[in-house]
Amino acid sequence: MGTMRILDSTGDTVVQWSELDDRAVLEASRAFDAQRKLRRMAFARLKGAAPTESVKISSFDPSAEEIIFVRPIVGG
């Protein structure tokens, strides 16, 4: 089962899916696309990776164990 966590001003929204459930994968993919349109950044923990290891992704990966969306941080 995969989990997407969307961290924003409303709190922590969770979206879950199973790779075997086409409808859940489609809904998670749509939620991913909606966040990307808002210019949020996605980081994924892939199967078999250490709990502290994640990679930045730009497209939905239904095999990811966890995807976390965050707002970009502006420095300067």
Question: How would you describe this structure to a colleague?
Answer:
- With about 80 residues, the chain is α+β, with helices and mostly antiparallel strands.
- The protein has a single domain, classed as Roll (Ubiquitin-like (UB roll)), CATH 3.10.20.
- The protein is built from one helix and five strands.
- It has a five-stranded mixed β-sheet with strand order 2-1-5-3-4, covered by helices on one side.
- Strand 1 and strand 2 form a beta hairpin.
- The longest helix is centred in the middle third of the chain and has 16 residues.
- The mean pLDDT is about 90.
Count the beta strands.
5
Q: Structural class from helices and strands?
A: alpha+beta
- Supply Rg: 12 Å
Summarize the biggest pleated sheet.
5 strands, mixed
**CATH hierarchy: architecture:** Roll
Number of domains: 1
CATH fold annotation = Ubiquitin-like (UB roll)
